[in-house]
Amino acid sequence: STTSERRAFAHKINRTVAAEVRKQVSREYGSPQLTKKRGGVSNPLSLSEVVEPVDFEEYVSSHAPGVEPGPLRQLMEFPQDDLELLHLDKECITLEPRVPDEEDSLDPRVRDALSVYTDDWLVIQRKYRHYSTTFTPHSSERQRERQRGLVKQTFELDVTTTDHQDDQEPQDDAKRRSVGLDETPRGSWASSIFDLKNSTPDALLPSVLERTALEDMDHCNTEARQQGRHSDLLGLYPPPDEDEAVERCSTVDVPKEHCGQRIMVKCLALKFEIEIEPIFGILALYDIKEKKKISENFYFDLNSDQMKGLLKPHTPHIAISTLARSAIFSITYPSADIFLVIKVLKMPTSLVQLEYSCEHKEKLEKLRLQAEQSCNRLGRFRMPFAWTAIHLVNVVSSMGSLDRSDPDSDSEKKGHGTWNERKKKTFERMSIADDMCNFATFRPATLTVTNFFKQEGDRLSDEDLYKFLADMRRPSSVLRRLRPVTAQLKIDISPAPDLPHYCLSPELLHVKPYPDPRVRPTKEVLEFPARDVYTPHTTYRNLLYVYPKSLNFSSRQGSVRNIAVKVQFMAGEDPSQALPVIFGKSSCAEFTNETYSPIIYHNKSPEFYEEMKMKIPANLTDNHHLMFTFYHISCQPKQNTPLETPVGYTWIPLMQHGRLKTGSFSLPVSVEKPPPSYSVLTPDVQLPGMKWVDNHKGVFSVEVTAASSVHTQDPFLDKFFTLVYVLEEYSFPFRLKDVIITESNMEAELKSSMVALRGALLDTCVSFLHQLLNKIIQLIVFPPVIGGQIVNLGRTAFETMALLVNQTHKNLEGNQDHHGRNNLLASYIHYCFRLPTAEPSVPPTGEPMPVQYATVSRATGRPSSLHLSRSKSISNSNPDLASTPVSPDEEVQRIIGSKLLHEELALQWVVSTSTVREAALQHAWFFFQLITKSMSHHLFLTSNVDVPRRQRFPDRFVDDIAALVCAISADIAGRYQKVPK
Predict the structure, then answer these.
(1) Residue range 540-560: average pLDDT?
(2) How many Å apart are CA 452 and CA 277, to the nearest integer?
(3) 828 Cβ neighbours under 8 A, 6+ residues apart
(4) Which of 60, 55, 61 lies closest to 75 in space, CA to CA?
(5) What proportion of the chain, given as a percentage, has pLDDT over 70?
(6) Domain C2 DOCK-type spans what residues (predicted)?
């Protein structure tokens, strides 16, 4: 090359022949004898000069890959098989697939959710990435793993005189030092440290002088070379240093369901002073600071076989899943304010006013007989009896272990009047307990709890419970007013194992490993996190929880004192349409079609604390509703008096206007059964001819919540998804609250719903992030067909996607890697993203209508969601088109051939804008249209295209989309400072 083409640092380098360099090295560093004979001849060549390196980029650009022959050709080309499209199986932690029972008729929400949760991961893998110098968080660990099985190498250079023992004879060291380099015949360094005269000769080599065939010699040499070889020679190289890494690559985590710190609770024994009737227990976690119940209920039964036999007529079949005595709780936000609350229920016998104490032992046989008779009549009912709580920070911290003074252990259970004294001793250590709440690692503890309190009928609400729990943390006189109950609960609390055996999921699915289905299981208890959790859903879950709160029948005439609420999940209005979707509690069937709340004895305005767990059907319709029937229960047998007397009815429609109805309700109660066709209406409607309690006022309070990866429970997200499903199903007209959705107003309503997504809760948007992005991308790639015209929603959809990505980046700054990329978005792009594979179906019409491609629509202002300073019109199509294209391919060709792609005009277009940031947005928006419209009609990721063809484009498309979305979001956040190249 010429002087101008050479690199700057190589101008002063003298080019020499390699043979001359070798000769000079041989003369300079040869044997000492030869050096002396030469008399120290100096070499005019300077060995400090560096040979000019090869400019690899220049060499590759000047030599075409097809011209360069030889084995080095592969170094110049990009590996043809480096990119491969993989369909990785999703890991299912349960033996059964997490899909709904109904497979024939699925709600569109469920269908789309299942496609997201059950499709395999689509990953673009680079096969030869591990040969690069890229540093990842696993590079050092992987290198150490490779070195673990290698033999440590010791070389002669590493051996020094300091490595020898101090007790060696001094003459050995003198001999070694006396032998110099000049006294050895070979002049080698090895000869200078060994006494060759006194050294032991090597063993003779057999068959050295024998004649051997060349083939045999090669075979023997090949076998000899294979002996003692290192399995991984490059593994000897030290692991890379993170500080010195030139290229860093962050690993993308596989999307998975959120799980907090887990503890296992085993219920070992529950005993009262006398045993006359069955007793049932409930466990749940409460956070008193957040004033929230942070787990669902776990029901356990520790009764003896004799006590269980009393209820056999009411429980003919007992599922093994209801016999669990151990539970695994998840805690996302550990704190010193979490309590494990234990509630005890008993039978609603005539002995309700009788205490379990020693003074009634003489009447024990009579009591047992009465209890047996009551169990035969009232075996399916329960009533509150007692409660207690365990402060978890005392268990997980070293100060709360049993070898010290634990207030809930056996060491201090002398009397009930010493509660405040015991709490005074632990009050000082509560201030430092917040820093020691690590529920993942602590010493297992076995507690014997004896401090039970009577469950008063007028103090059953959660507000009362929070006051009692707060009193347990500080000395107070509130607990002194509670009546103690003599009982003893033995319980074991320990960190949950990583892979527990015989475990059931909250949906009662068998979690791997599950060797034997006949073994008593352990249940995973679903967590209700105290604060928001920003993790997308990855599995199907569709659960409903119903919490009756209170009932006011003070104005109700008649005998309505022992009130129980029966709850049913109805698919219609006929009594036979009660669905068996209600989870069983303990020692009963796995699912049932009705459940009862505990009876509050002699109270016309009772409060409830019951939790009713249900499965939401996959084909939810407007006729599905919750039916509440209120009964007066005759606890004492009387002639001509039925056991159950209905005293009121009310209901909640579960599906209205495309939304699952959840929240808190204050419902009026009807004295008579509802009339036909009541299920599509709410009880707030004044139906003619019906009598209502207290003049149609809301006398029944109930709360309905859902733990669902299908129903968002957010009004903005629900409206958007509902309109998309109406458009996909083409189910016009559709009533959405007070608006009738038709073909004429569908486009405006859909655009307004996308704009309104800015008001959706961030945690809900993140929970349904995968489904939301899929729908937005589908609206961009395949515009919907309305009234025979393809409506271009690309601009509004793109603004919505930019807004969603911006909110994710801005509010979840702690969830980003060292490149500033959000982990949630990176995992979606890496594992979940794929182009839509089918165009929207043309709506059925009576007469064939020509389908037009709508691209001439103009916007009058700049996108409002991008918050730009100037108000300049941006077209959502190419403004230079002479006419309306009739196909996407024709439009792409015109865009490519338009003057906007020429460099000079593009530069003028950039300069003419007010700011560089606005120009960047215009560039990004234009090229986004170009990419999506061209790629959408050449589907490289469709299933009907062979894999080799798909390997050419998917990684480029995914990277472009990811970079573009991140660039737009960065611009919105004010961090985008220049026009992208």
Answers:
(1) 90
(2) 18
(3) 255, 536, 769, 770, 773
(4) 60
(5) 66
(6) 541-707
Residue type, 205: L
Query: d(Cα 580, Cα 591) in Å, to the nearest integer?
Result: 6
Residue 754: inside a domain, yes or no? yes
Is-contact 648 627, C-beta < 8 A? no
Which of 396, 446, 353 is CA-nearest to residue 635?
A: 353
Q: Which are the contacts of 720, defined by CB distance < 8 A and separation ≥ 6?
A: 750, 753, 754, 756, 757, 772, 775
Considering the domain boundaries, does residue 871 fall inside one? no
Last residue of a domain, one of 81, 101, 131: 131
- 482 and 555 share a domain? no
671 and 581 in a single domain? The answer is yes
Rounded Cα distance between 744 and 852, Å, is 16
Rg (CA), the chain: 39
Tokens representing 770 are: 């995968």
**Three-class SS string for 129-182?**
HHHCCCECCCHHHHHHHHHCCCCCCCCHHHCCHHHCCCCCCHHHHHHHHHCCHH
Tens digit of each residue's pLDDT (9 = 90 or more) over 49-69? 667 777 776 777 777 666 556
- Identify the band that residue 48 occupies on the pLDDT scale cut at 50, 70 and 90: low
Q: What is the pLDDT of residue 591?
A: 96
Q: Tell whether 774 and 680 lie within a shared domain.
A: no
Do residue 546 and residue 452 come from a single domain? no
Range with top average pLDDT, 74-78, 79-83, 852-856: 79-83
Residue-wise DSSP of 335-372: -TTEEEEEEEEE---TTTT---SGGGGGGHHHHHHHHH
Q: What is the dihedral of CA 891, 895, 898, 901, to 10 degrees?
A: -170
Least confident of 519-523, 672-676, 886-890: 886-890
Kindly state whether residues 627 and 654 are assigned to the same domain. yes
Question: Rounded CA gap, 50 and 53, in Å?
Answer: 9
Q: Which domain holds residue 813?
A: 739-836+885-977
Local structure of 669: helix, strand or coil: coil
pLDDT over 70 (residue 362): no
How far apart CA 853 and CA 790 sit, in angstroms, is 5
pLDDT of res. 436? 63
Burial of 937 from C-beta contacts in 10 A (0-12 / 13-18 / 19+): middle
What local confidence, expressed as pLDDT, does residue 238 receive? 72
Average model confidence (pLDDT) across the chain: 76
Q: Please tell me the distance from the alpha carbon of residue 652 to that of residue 701, in angstroms, as a whole number.
A: 12
Q: How many domains does the chain have?
A: 4
Least confident span in 88-102, 640-654, 776-790, 845-859 = 845-859
Structure tokens at 217: 């010699």
On whether residue 617 sits in a domain, the answer given is yes
Q: Tell me the residue ranges of DSSP E strands in 640-699.
A: 644-653, 655-656, 659-660, 663-667
% pLDDT > 90, the chain: 35
Burial class (CB in 10 A: 0-12, 13-18, 19+), 89: exposed
* CA distances for 383 relative to 350, 372, 600, angstroms: 12, 16, 6
* 416 in any annotated domain: no
